[in-house]
């Protein structure tokens, strides 16, 4: 039988005590990086300063280099060399932001895991508030933007998209939230079990359930460089969000089909009435014919496009290819014992 630990103030004289120190809880940061060479050092400095305010916790910083084309990897290697808490996963190519997050989640060992970008739009200081919410009992704490320092077009499109997604999605995805969030170990492990390729992480997290709370914050502007989410990438992410968590587009096709069928029946009725009762003014009907053909053709092509998007998702999922590939790990930290170089 193991000898129990005795507090030194209450140990009887001559008793051989065995005092086992309590393990400090570990918080992992998952930090995807793509072409951020100019801002990574400042980000790491602020992150280290923020985490230094919590000496009661241990921290690890899992940087995921998502095939950067600039000097980001070199800067990350310097950080890993000088910071024993830092570790760098160097992906074999650019797999995309959501896959980079997934790679970091698979590697993180913490009792809680914080996902955030490295462009300083999500302030590292706010992550301390996420930790406070976790310690208060939340299993998932997500940063919700009160304000954001972006262009007017970016603010307008983001505002509209989040509300459309919230309206159409079959799960409750909070508005004005990105991937900046904390998850406890239990919710992280459940999320790791989701292996679909067309990933929309914030939607997946919302679908998990658990006790989730919002932490409002003001989003800053980028400290350096330009956004890695241009309009085409934003549209692809938006499409993933809608098609991953909503069948509304398919339902719209059904309703549109019913409406066009009704219009086609009206057109047929009009043509028959003109032919039977007013044959003298009846003309070949070129105008009506062209309108109906073009309208129905457009609806059919739109319907095929939406159906094709869902079929394409099925195609990529059944291939069951690895989500990402890690070509090397840089740093003094150690990866999870069950994490391999390639996703399951």
Written account of the structure:
By secondary structure, the chain is an alpha/beta fold. It has two domains: 26-228 and 321-331, Alpha-Beta Complex (Spore Coat Polysaccharide Biosynthesis Protein SpsA, Chain A); 248-319. Helices cover 46% and strands 17% of the residues. The chain has ten helices and eight strands. It has helices at residues 40-51, 72-82, 97-107, 124-135, 152-168, 185-192, 201-208, 231-245, 248-277, 286-319; strands at 26-33, 58-65, 86-91, 112-115, 140-148, 177-184, 212-219, 326-331. Strands 7-5-6-4-1-2-3-8 form an eight-stranded mixed sheet, with helices on both faces. Helix 1 packs parallel to helix 4.
Stretches where pLDDT is under 50 for at least 5 consecutive residues are 1-12, 15-20, 339-344
Principal-axis shape equals elongated
* Largest β sheet strand count, sense and barrel closure: 8 strands, mixed
User: Could you name the CATH homologous superfamily of the largest domain?
Assistant: Spore Coat Polysaccharide Biosynthesis Protein SpsA, Chain A
Alpha-beta classification: alpha/beta
Which band does the percent of strand residues land in?
A: 15-25%
Number of strands: 8
**CATH topology-level name of the largest domain:** Spore Coat Polysaccharide Biosynthesis Protein SpsA, Chain A
Strand order of the largest sheet: 7-5-6-4-1-2-3-8
User: What integer value in Å does the Rg equal?
Assistant: 27 Å
CATH class group of the largest domain: Alpha Beta
**Secondary structure tally, helices:** 10
N- and C-termini, Cα separation: 40 Å
Share in helix: 40-55%
How many domains is the backbone divided into?
2
CATH architecture of the largest domain: Alpha-Beta Complex
Summarize model confidence as the mean pLDDT: 77
